[in-house]
UniProtKB/TrEMBL annotation:
Gene Ontology, cellular component aspect: plasma membrane; side of membrane
Reaction catalysed by this enzyme: [(1->4)-N-acetyl-beta-D-glucosaminyl](n) + n H2O = chitosan + n acetate
Its membrane topology: Lipid-anchor; GPI-anchor
Similarity-based family: Belongs to the polysaccharide deacetylase family.
Enzyme nomenclature, EC number: 3.5.1.41
Protein name: chitin deacetylase
């Protein structure tokens, strides 16, 4: 492991993430800064903006959300809102473990200072028994895309449709209310729609009440658009601990992360710290180890920035479609769960063969889930670029 430890490295990354903001369409504001918190010291995992630059600032003066409306885009919703107050009654906070909110999800320098039972995924690599972090069957890939719907999502959906490929989409509430027609399309095409968050802040940095507000407003935005209530959710940046998990579980949500180290780093392309080639190389490196894993895996990818969609449709997915024995499925499919919504199946169709069986719908993916024919190809490109190491280290701060 390369050890680079200085404030300067963190600041460099923060600045490059901020510049990524300028790539975003003006009508989809993405400025992420919560009321009551300082500017981001460091963002991890995704190209979320590090500090307010463009777009609306979050107004710190409380006003109730108007009937039929939603909280300010990309701002942590107010918890005094009467609607939120109603939702708070769904959770018995006396059952919620008490851990202090983090500083923007950044791990303390001394990670051993974190109590074991906090089980903080990002800082302790701790998985709780109920966390969904892999698909059960070897060779099965839980295909997921986070942070949409964006103006670039339709290009991803086109590609998936062309290959009769379904995915799990973790939706940001603020994006859903900006592009409801895009979300509707994704749902109508049978993708598994799931919850991400409203403002895309680190969940461990929020209060119990703010966590409820983030999850329930996103759930409501999705329900208002497609008429179903997702059961699966993914914490932004994978940032979850025992406190956050408990609240999500009390709201009936299943915490779904990704398999440790199965982060394509696609989010680092718009941030300027990865290239499409390094992302594809990372992915090809996995192909070598997938056949010998005792289970399948879930991969982190995104469809917020054009670079992320481009690397999926031009780089990662074509290789994956062509890899014999690799079966890509939405998470609910690989877990053999035909009811990913509180209302039931919705448009989601559970294929026979369930948990990573041999009935993939892609022509290239109908083989049994063993003997990944092209796996050796991956070993040749296992060398990960220095920039990937560098970023991987900064993310682990
Ligand atoms: C902030 O919100 C308050 C309450 O709705 C409103 O009166 C005020 O004009 C807002 N300020 C800005 C800068 O938008
Ligand atoms: C993404 O791909 C499209 C279509 O090929 C291209 O027009 C666009 O410039 C690409 N965007 C980026 C940021 O790479
Ligand atoms: C495979 O799945 C397709 C689509 O659901 C279905 O029509 C077909 O009967 C299945 N085949 C087997 C062998 O289960
Ligand atoms: Zn995200």
């Amino acid at each position: 492991m390369v050890h680079i430890n200085s404030i300067t490295t963190a600041a460099t990354i923060a600045v490059s993430l901020t510049s990524a903001l300028t790539l975003v369409s003006a009508h989809i504001p993405l400025t992420t800064h919560s009321s009551g918190h300082g500017s981001h010291a460091l963002e991890k995992r995704q190209a979320a903006p590090a500090a307010p630059t463009t777009g609306p600032s979050c107004n710190t003066t409380y006003a109730p959300v108007a009937a039929g409306s939603y909280p300010a885009i990309d701002c942590v919703p107010f918890t005094h809102d009467p609607q939120v107050q109603t939702w708070l009654k769904l959770v018995d906070f006396s059952k919620t473990p008490v851990f202090p909110p983090s500083q923007k999800g950044v791990c303390p320098t001394d990670k051993t200072s974190i109590p074991q039972d906090q089980c903080w995924w990002t800082c302790q690599k701790c998985e709780a028994p109920d966390d969904i972090t892999s698909c059960p069957t070897t060779g099965t890939w839980g295909l997921t895309f986070d942070d949409g719907p964006s103006p670039d999502s339709p290009r991803l959906y086109d590609n998936l449709l062309e290959h009769n490929q379904k995915a799990t989409l973790f939706i940001v509430g603020s994006r859903a209310v900006s592009l409801p027609a895009t979300l509707k399309r994704a749902y109508n095409e049978g993708h598994q729609i799931a919850i991400h968050a409203w403002s895309h802040n680190s969940m461990t940095s929020l209060t119990n009440e703010q966590i409820v507000a983030e999850l329930k407003w996103t759930e409501k935005a999705i329900f208002d658009t497609i008429g179903v209530t997702p059961i699966y959710w993914r914490p932004p940046f994978g940032d979850v601990d025992a406190r956050v998990r408990n609240i999500a579980a009390q709201l009936g949500l299943k915490t779904s992360i990704w398999t440790q180290d199965f982060d394509t780093n696609d989010w680092n392309i718009p941030a300027g710290a990865a290239t499409p080639q390094s992302v594809v190389d990372t992915f090809k490196g996995w192909l070598a180890k997938i056949p010998s894993m005792p289970h399948g895996f879930i991969v982190l990818e995104h469809d917020l920035f054009p670079e992320e969609v481009n690397v999926s449709i031009n780089g990662v997915l074509p290789v994956a479609y062509a890899t014999k024995g690799l079966l890509m499925q939405p998470i609910a499919q690989c877990l053999n769960d035909g009811k990913p919504y509180k209302e039931g199946a919705g448009t989601f169709k559970l294929l026979p063969g369930g948990s990573g069986g041999s009935n993939g719908t892609n022509p290239g993916n109908k083989n049994s889930a063993i003997g990944l024919g092209d796996a050796r190809e991956g070993q040749e490109v296992l060398t990960v670029s220095a920039v990937t190491f560098f970023v991987a280290f900064v993310m682990n701060l």
